[in-house]
């Protein structure tokens, strides 16, 4: 994971009073227990108007902030009960049991913390922790999502206090699924947020960190792509550059070096793939042939043995024309099936964008499970899938991911790929 920074531009402190709310919902259905937990904060400004009512998460019910007493303590109400918290105090509520005829037991509770924090320190703490958790991991758990929401809430509070140079960082984090890779995945949200920032004057000379934060996000997203989303941005950078801002001039010239991301490091990095196999009357997979990016071109073929030759005739945008079984076909969607002349076999095509590292791992597990399966229908595609995995690994290495060399050797030298599965002795190579 490459290092990334949020530039503050100056020494400042934005303190805020915060009520931290932890929601917990637990159920028991016969002997099966389940629980769900969520976390939220309410920032209480100096001019707050009471009551303030929280959201209802996990079915726990809302919390009402009634007001603040003369001694500074905060008064809360939850499910008819009142709680008073002094500054710096934490408090757990009574557990409330809910009537539910369909469950053995259902209960909810809350825990609160009333504190004063430095908003910027809070943002940076959440930012670093989330990036570490999401390093190479495409999954966004509710815990990670809650922490993201809290970080964004605090960062927006700082912006509202007049520190508009954080708009580029806020736009990036709001539109990026994986904070470790920093890849913009929601272009509409990114452009809308950035345009709001530009309108608010975030690139005014007094907000010196705005250009630095823009340059930071351009290290993870190509300048030409960002200028494509926001054509007006290049002109703004040119003007600032002419006024003496050296970093703005570098940005305007397209000279910010963008990290070359690998699929293994960036779960959001996707490539076009065309995967084909054929099914028998039991819908069992036979063979596995994979085309990636530039391999999806006119003239590309796959020798499918008894089922003949598959050949790509033409590629027009997302439409592929191909021949198989003596006939010409057109693939217009991401999934298609064509029946062979014998009315038994079917050609199955999957045309989609996906992360190559995720695909590689899934196919390794597919082979391992097929090898130990007692069902003969799970074994017809093992050898072709192995060959496709090895070819894909070689492609990733050639693309710059040299750390996969050890994995490639292990794939070639181990007959049984169950060693890569959960608990297998070579599982660490896929971590």
Written account of the structure:
The two termini are about 15 Å apart. It contains 11 helices and 17 strands. Helices cover about 30% and strands about 25% of the residues. The protein is α+β, with helices and mostly antiparallel strands and about 425 residues long. Helix 9 runs antiparallel to helix 10. Strands 1, 2, 7, 8 and 9 form a 5-stranded antiparallel beta sheet that branches. Strands 3-4-5-6 form a 4-stranded antiparallel beta sheet, with no helix packed on it. It has 3 domains: about 110 residues, no CATH class; about 90 residues, no CATH class; about 150 residues, no CATH class.
In percent, how helical is the residue content?
25-40%
Strand content: 25-35%
**Mean pLDDT, all residues:** 92
Q: In this structure, how is the largest beta sheet organized?
A: 5 strands, antiparallel
Quick one: how many beta strands? Answer: 17
The figure for the number of domains is 3
**In angstroms, what is the radius of gyration?**
28 Å
Task: Tag the structure with descriptive keywords.
431 residues; 31% helix; 3 domains; single chain; four-stranded antiparallel beta sheet; globular; alpha+beta
Summarize the model shown.
31% of the residues lie in helices and 27% in strands.
Set down the secondary structure blueprint.
Layout: E1 15-29, E2 32-44, E3 52-53, E4 63-68, E5 74-78, E6 81-85, E7 90-92, E8 96-97, E9 105-118, H1 119-134, H2 142-160, H3 167-174, H4 187-199, H5 209-218, H6 223-229, H7 231-242, H8 246-252, E10 271-279, E11 285-292, E12 301-303, E13 309-316, E14 319-324, E15 327-331, E16 335-339, E17 346-354, H9 356-372, H10 382-398, H11 405-413
Antiparallel strand pairs: 1-2, 1-9, 3-4, 4-5, 5-6, 7-9, 8-9, 10-11, 10-17, 12-13, 13-14, 14-15, 16-17
Helix pairs in contact: 1-2, 2-3, 3-4, 3-5, 6-7, 7-8, 9-10, 10-11
């Amino acid at each position: 994971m490459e290092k990334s920074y949020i530039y503050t531009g100056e020494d400042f402190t934005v303190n805020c009073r915060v009520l931290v709310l932890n929601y917990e919902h637990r159920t028991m259905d016969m002997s099966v227990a389940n629980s769900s937990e969520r976390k939220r904060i309410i920032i209480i400004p100096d001019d707050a108007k009471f009551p303030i009512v929280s959201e209802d998460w996990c079915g726990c019910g809302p919390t009402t902030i009634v007001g603040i007493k003369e001694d500074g303590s905060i008064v809360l109400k939850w499910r008819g009960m009142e709680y008073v918290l002094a500054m710096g105090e934490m408090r757990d509520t009574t557990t409330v049991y809910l009537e539910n005829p369909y469950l053995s037991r259902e209960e909810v509770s809350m825990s609160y913390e009333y504190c004063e924090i430095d908003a910027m320190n809070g943002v940076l703490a959440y930012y670093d922790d989330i990036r570490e958790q999401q390093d190479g991991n495409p999954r966004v758990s509710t815990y990670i999502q809650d922490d993201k929401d809290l970080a964004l809430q605090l960062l927006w509070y700082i912006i509202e206090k007049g520190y508009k140079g954080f708009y580029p960082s806020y736009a990036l984090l709001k539109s990026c699924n994986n904070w470790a890779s920093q890849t913009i995945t929601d272009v509409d949200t990114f452009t809308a947020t950035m345009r709001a920032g530009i309108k608010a004057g975030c690139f005014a000379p007094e907000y010196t960190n705005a250009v630095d934060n823009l340059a930071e996000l351009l290290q993870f997203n190509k300048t030409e792509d960002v200028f494509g989303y926001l054509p007006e941005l290049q002109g703004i950078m040119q003007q600032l550059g002419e006024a003496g801002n050296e970093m703005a001039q570098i940005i305007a010239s397209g000279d910010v070096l963008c990290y070359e991301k690998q699929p293994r490091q960036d779960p959001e990095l996707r490539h076009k793939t065309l995967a084909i196999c054929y099914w028998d009357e039991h819908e069992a997979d036979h063979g596995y042939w994979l085309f990636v990016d530039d391999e999806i071109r006119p003239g590309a073929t796959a020798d499918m043995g008894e089922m003949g030759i598959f050949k790509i005739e033409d590629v027009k945008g997302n439409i592929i024309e191909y021949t198989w079984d003596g006939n010409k076909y057109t693939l217009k969607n991401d999934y298609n099936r064509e029946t062979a002349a014998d009315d038994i076999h079917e050609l199955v095509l999957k045309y989609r964008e996906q992360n190559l590292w995720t695909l590689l791992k899934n196919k390794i597990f597919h082979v391992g499970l097929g090898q130990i399966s007692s069902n003969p229908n799970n074994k017809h595609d093992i050898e072709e899938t192995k060959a496709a995995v090895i070819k894909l690994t070689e492609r990733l290495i050639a693309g710059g991911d040299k750390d996969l060399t050890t994995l490639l050797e292990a794939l070639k030298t181990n007959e049984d790929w169950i060693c890569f599965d959960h608990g297998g002795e070579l599982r660490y190579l896929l971590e």
